TrEMBL record:
The protein's name: VOC family protein
Family of the protein in this entry: Belongs to the extradiol ring-cleavage dioxygenase family.
Domain VOC: 5-122, 142-255
Pfam families: Glyoxalase
Native species: Umezawaea endophytica
Amino acid sequence: MGISKLGYVGLNTTDVEAWTTLFDRTLGVKSATVEFGTEEVVLAALDDVEYRLALYRSTEDSPRHIGWVVDTAPELDRLTRRLTDAGFAVEEGTAEEARLRGATRLRWFTDPVGYRVEIVLGQARTHPRPVRPADATPGVTGLGHLVLASPKLDELRDLYESVLEFKLTDYRAPGLFFFRCNTTHHSIALASAETTSIHHLEIEHGSLDDVGRAFDRAQANDVPISISLGRHMNDRAVSFYVRNPSGFHLEIGWGGIEVGDDWVAHDFGTSDVWGHRHTDANPFASPTRP
């Protein structure tokens, strides 16, 4: 069993208001502010769990935590043992942290690039589906995947593939790899890069028309579109990307394929079936090791 899905991402950000405006004007997603200790945290609820994206006011823009979900307490304990055996120090999260995430239990460790990675037991369904624009059918449906780029590609691959038991779905040699923890084509991709960063987060939509309407809203509200509308070769998703206030991309997507245990990992070669023109140089055009 192991990890069942990507649960949430927390970000330190210097401009929370710009983030909430981006979510409102592009996705039709409203945000809520809650108290967390001495901090105020802005939560974007993309579906019926507490949140998928948490924004913490900060003097820097950086990832604060990445949260993965397990479905049973024995699996949480088993993965804790695997992490400990691999040399990672696993800590218990506080009750307040678990409550904020809508989880029953929370444990965390620091990954090879210094990011806090959390594993939580469950995520409570806390409210009905958030309000969407009138033309949403059904609009945003959740958080899809993240892409993490780093010079420590080998260490990250060992963590996710060997320790956390993600399965390799496909790759582009020599430095871009896609991994799954359920039937979705990928929940994380790992890439070789000179510096560590989140390259993008993907926001799932319920229909192709919803992606098109989000594209229209982004253009109408002068949101910086960093990668044009297109279809990926490997997961077949149709999407476009916007540059968010923290400097990386948000992918607005629909239609990614699902794969089963009989899937054979392979080099998928060309990055896109069509589209996905980059406004800046594409770091994954010819992925290479630094």
